[in-house]
């Protein structure tokens, strides 16, 4: 739990948002180490403050959960992210778009399905939805980020075809139950908030309609509670091995596309929205359906996160989420964990220390086990961690060298000659003439 002063500052920010943005009701929570440490509500639902069990609509946060199901299929070998949609959902006029492009909203599909505004009208079955598509892509697949609710309707059907059950049944069995999210449902159950539109020029409300979105449900159907949304935030930050491998979750959080060009404040991974804020790299998703707004952000670096639910069509200011994180950081900054020696392969100590790529100094460090890190001594340039492989090489885990091979090349007497990182030669001295530097080193040496 947080200190009393922190709690008051957090509650004041939520109260100000509810009053100033004229939100009928608002429920928010902040997390540390993947678990909630504070929650608060303002406003009323049916004449009383919302309770922990009060449901709100999640909107597009649903997409992250559907994406988790797709990644489970990938990990089971049932599909490849580079597969065209037609391989798993044949007969659509957009079958050339890949699974990865649908997950990251880079397939070039239209944002909304054909027909009346799907969020405010009863949905149609998958066959009717696909039959209405004309196959027209708004952009060349892979060219740019173009958010597509339609794409997630199609992904939900891919899940259903593979599992042989509706996507939401698969979600409950494979994701929600293991995470303890028992109050997350496809349709509202009591108690739940009514979704409202707030008149722009008067303090009056208009109830928004709510329907089963059917084939479009994977784009934004789910209802949930604040405690359940905190469980989801904890999963985004810390993972749960029974639901998804840690490496797969990390893959979902990697930026596949940037939404805002050179600024790179916001991006999208595989079913995850990404946000950079004051040194944090947050993953999660926002949600919007008529009458409801929701969001969840989590920082996997330290497990800090925020979850928020509101029953209003518009008006909630996005900064409220990051403001809550800023208040938590300002009032109760994270105390660094104590340094402790790591269990590592001391036989690799001879590799550590300075290396040179041409004239540029780098430092190789030994991490836990046999993991290595190689980065520029000055802090600017290509850096990566490398994981040991059974064949005696290392593979890059991130950055420019992700997926590339690091080899330790030894002389006939067993001493280390140089490092080969995907043809780049790193030597113990700048352009060491005793090492096989590509192109050779002039006999004149340094002058």
UniProtKB/TrEMBL annotation:
SUPFAM superfamilies: beta-lactamase/transpeptidase-like (SSF56601)
Highest taxon of the lineage: Bacteria
Domain called Beta-lactamase-related: residue spans: 13-323
Chain ranges of the DUF7586 domain: 345-428
InterPro entries: AmpC-like (IPR050491), Beta-lactam-related (IPR001466), Beta-lactam/transpept-like (IPR012338), DUF7586 (IPR056008)
Name by which UniProt lists this protein: CubicO group peptidase (Beta-lactamase class C family)
